[in-house]
Amino acid sequence: MTSTTEPTLRLRYAALSDVGRVRKDNQDSGFAGENLLVIADGVGGAARGDVASSTAVQILRRLDAPPPENLLEALAGAIHRAHDRIAELVDEDPELEGTSTTVTAALFDGRRVGIGHVGDSRGYLLRNGELSQLTKDHTFVQSLIDEGRITEEESRSHPHRNLILRAVDGVHETDPDLFTIELVQGDRLLLCSDGCSGVLDNDRLADILGTGTVDFAAVELVRASLEAGSSDNITCVVADVVNADAPADESTLAATSTGPMLVGAAAEQPRKAGATSKSFFRGHRSGDTGELEPVPGEDDRPVDPEELRYAPRPPRRFAWLRRLAILFGLTALLVLAATGAYSWSQDQYYVAADDDHVAIYRGVQADLPGVNLSKLHETSDITLAALPDYRAAQVRDGISAKDLADAERIVANIGDLARPCPTEEPSPTASPSAETSPGSGDKKASEEPQASGEPSPSPSPSPSPTLAPPDCVEVSP
């Protein structure tokens, strides 16, 4: 929320961007105005990082107006709009795919600034001679520093010092760091790209920022970065926090007369051709660094580290064909795997129930939706009803076998436990007449036939079986 009182502070500012002595193109962009300071470092090398940085600055500069009620909400919204616009540009021109940019912006409301930050450009505050870093780099080496694996000094020469983990690229969510800083009269703010902060340590930055006017500091920061061996584009935005009623002196007339300043890739004209930019160097002890010719690149030089920064990808040609080939390859692998699994399953056997009989199945006892992994191989004469309850339950659950011979042995063992059906016994025959004992005088009577009309004795009938299939198994004679 803004203050309920009238602002008592204002900004005196200067902005400067230099292509440096190595690179052919400037992919940095910067802006400085009464209420807004912005630095953007384009990433992507051949993917035109200058397009990304200038797009972000052109959208963010619309915030250089009477401050909104919520500084952080306004910054987050502008950064997201830059994200959307970059996505649109990539859709319109696939050659831009892989482009992205860092963004560090400070939105001023008369007594404080809201900071929005993504990437490895930096924001600093010099107060009473003490320099503090406001932003935290979203880089791989910063994660190593946080873990205590390397020092700040070691990070400056780390082979992956250019790899950033977060940027505005039109693809991934921006997720900027957002916070506010209360300002006091006499504070000096610095926003710079890593072409400056990557080669100048805090002591050197504090020494330069603590000397001279904002325009002198901006020039000296660029010059010192070049002399320290910076191989990148260098962009610096410097602003003093002064009393709103303080009159402008001769050293700040140039800045106050020109209004908002747009530098780097976002500027309509190169810095060397602009009279306003040259006015910064007028009277400086060493002249305009922009007059230094860049070192021409060699065709066989090592890969430019800028091309190894955030998400560097060459333009995608025939992307649909590559996706189709990948899909075909994955499909072929799945088919081969499925074929191999099915072939293996058909060498497996198990014993289970086929309705009410014990049977041998070929395959595995598992089914997939729409795929049957087993089939009936052979059904035996053994019924489940003829088995003991525990054995019948085992058969219903399925009994694994090593192979077909093993399955046949299991069935034979099960058959030994089945109840056999009883067989009918033959009818008994009449026993012969008892022989008379020697010396008996009743031989004649025994030989006489029975009186007519008396029935002869008949054999007793055999009992009928109490078990029958399927409660038992018929045994072959």
How would you explain this protein's 3D organization?
Helix 1 packs antiparallel against helix 2. Helix content is 29%, strand content 22%. It has two domains: 9-290 and 304-317, 4-Layer Sandwich (Phosphatase 2c, domain 1); 349-417, no CATH class. The protein contains 13 helices and 16 strands. With 477 residues, the chain is an alpha+beta fold. Strand 2 and strand 3 form a beta hairpin. Strands 2, 3, 4, 5, 6, 9 and 12 form a seven-stranded antiparallel β-sheet that branches. Strands 1-11-10-7-8 form a five-stranded antiparallel β-sheet. Mean pLDDT is 81; it is low at 269-301, 311-316 and 433-453.
Shape: rod-shaped
Specify the number of helices: 13
Overall pLDDT level: 81
Q: Helix content range of the residues, please? A: 25-40%
β-strand percent reads: 15-25%
Using only C-alpha atoms, the radius of gyration works out to 48 Å
Low-confidence stretches: 269-301, 311-316, 433-453
Distance between the termini: 104 Å
CATH fold type of the largest domain: Phosphatase 2c, domain 1
Please write the CATH class name of the largest domain: Alpha Beta
Strand count, sense and barrel status of the largest sheet are: 7 strands, antiparallel
Which architecture name of the largest domain does CATH use? 4-Layer Sandwich
Order of helices and strands: EEEHHEEEEEHHEEHHHEHEHHEEEHEHH
Count of distinct structural domains: 2
Query: What would you call the structural class?
Result: alpha+beta
* Number of extended strands: 16
The CATH H-level superfamily of the largest domain is: PPM-type phosphatase domain
